[in-house]
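Lest this sound abstract, we let one protein speak, letters for residues, whole numbers for local backbone shapes, and leave readers to judge:
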Amino acid sequence: MDLSSRISYLRIGPDPLPGLQAPDSLIKMIEPRIASFYQDTEIYPIAPEAIDYLSGLATRYACWTLPRRLHLQERGVEGYALWLSLVWLIDALFDQDRSMTSEEDAADLLLTITRLEEVEGRSPLFTSLFKTVRRAYSKYLDLIAEYRELNPGAYDQILIWFVRYLATLTDSSETQRNLIEYAHWRLVSGAMMCVVWHLCLFTSTELSPGSSLLFELVSLIVSYHNDLLSFHRDRDQGTPNLLDSLDGNSWIRMKKGIELVDRLYSQVGQILVEAGDENVSEIALAILEGSYNWSLNEPRYSHGLKILTAVQMGDRELFEQLLEKKERVSGDLDLE
């Protein structure tokens, strides 16, 4: 399948991309390492099942989105998976109950990561989180040390975007944003530019200004796709979502969201065809195709996929039924 065909095929739908297989052997190698690391941390006894689940979720995403030629670089894969699991753990804790988190918590977390200092939280939960973050980030830096030495600029960009992401954890601004405002916010809150720069780190790729714009579009596609799959859950939890920035009822907004993501795919496809840069194409397709197939293979997105499919089939009655069904997702943190 040539580049144009691959991008054209990438539309929101219920079918995995042809020819792509889950990297099961790599997942089976890396996932136990991530799980084993967390089992020895301070936060593990608080939510062991959820943390085990997040370890697997992150490992699978790492393995799906890395170009296959990088699968033999075990330390890089493990470092990437550990970083992803850490982001999802942080995100889950701050999302669990926004009333028990504060800007001070986010600031202390930033201090823990950027300086790797011992920081005490305002609760046993956050003290455990900070200790776990410090240990995990230290191990992550050790695993990617060789790549940082070869491509320090890429790591600098990972850290810049990571710090920006952390600043969104306790964002107290109005959740109702127009589409442009939401795009700016989601580009940061999704942490997908960190994923882009990890792949640049591992492939020794430097991005031109034009490529940076391309990857911002790639990042938004993945984040918006996640929004569509998670709309029902975000609505119930009060989490900002793309559909909040669109007009109309839920049915109309979902259709508009699908159309928006399809337009972004078309833009990315055109840019890639015109650019002709093999490294850039490899990274963009690894992220788009990997994220797409990963989400279609993860049980946590199965209900959202049914909702999305109902919209595409034009079955509004089924859509409404699925939207009203309450869902508890595997791996949701239970900190009561």
Residues 21-143 form one domain. The mean pLDDT is 86. The radius of gyration is 19 Å. Residues 200 and 206 are 7 Å apart (CA to CA).
